[in-house]
Design a protein that fits this description.
By secondary structure, this protein is mostly beta strands. The protein is built from one helix and twelve strands, in the order E-E-E-E-E-H-E-E-E-E-E-E-E.
């Protein structure tokens, strides 16, 4: 089989994070402007490479004041670090649909290795529209990737104390990335 190249369709690819708030609940945020690519040989998926860029300036939690605080130097510091990146360096396959992708995640200019548990959701041929015209079917593939990171590892360390030794924001953050990858024009998928 030959290598194929897929790009992440930004309108249908996004990241969500959640952190504990005030020790009792979770607050979720979304990052929708995700671009990236996957380069893979379906016969040797463990050799695949993946890269992604996330626009942190567009963080959305549903609360404008909280969104502004997250964009500030207390958290994401988007004035100096408007994008986050991920560069996958290794893939381990556990089944036909379950993988682990390890790579370098960069947030606020700080890079650490992160392991994502990835579930392959399948492929489908779908219409492809550009400028109001259906240019014929294009192959799409779906993936969900999850991980848990310590935000302090990336210099995202603002916090405040609450009653009985608690904190406003947890150290650990759950991350889910939903990916819709589109096969590059001229490529053939298995």
């Amino acid at each position: 089989m030959a290598w194929t190249r897929w790009f992440f369709e930004p309108g249908h690819t996004g990241a969500e994070f959640r952190a504990r708030h005030m020790m009792i609940t979770y607050v979720r945020g979304q990052l929708k402007n995700v671009h990236g690519w996957l380069h893979v040989d379906p016969d040797e998926p463990e050799k695949a490479r993946v890269s992604a860029t996330i626009d942190a300036t567009q963080v959305y939690t549903g609360q404008p004041d909280r969104d502004a605080h997250l964009r500030s130097a207390d958290f994401f510091d988007v004035e100096h670090h408007p994008t986050w990146t991920f560069a996958g360096v290794s893939v381990q396959q556990f089944s036909t649909t379950e993988f682990e992708v390890v790579g370098d995640l960069t947030v606020r200019g700080v890079t650490h290795p992160v392991a994502f548990d990835v579930t392959y959701l399948g492929q489908w041929d779908t219409p492809w529209w550009e400028d109001g015209h259906d240019l014929g079917p294009r192959r799409r593939a779906g993936f969900t990737a999850t991980t848990r990171i310590n935000r302090h590892d990336f210099g995202v360390s603002w916090n405040d104390a609450v009653d009985r030794g608690g904190v406003v924001v947890s150290s650990m953050v759950d991350v889910v990335v939903d990916i819709e990858a589109v096969l590059e024009a001229g490529e053939t998928a298995a």
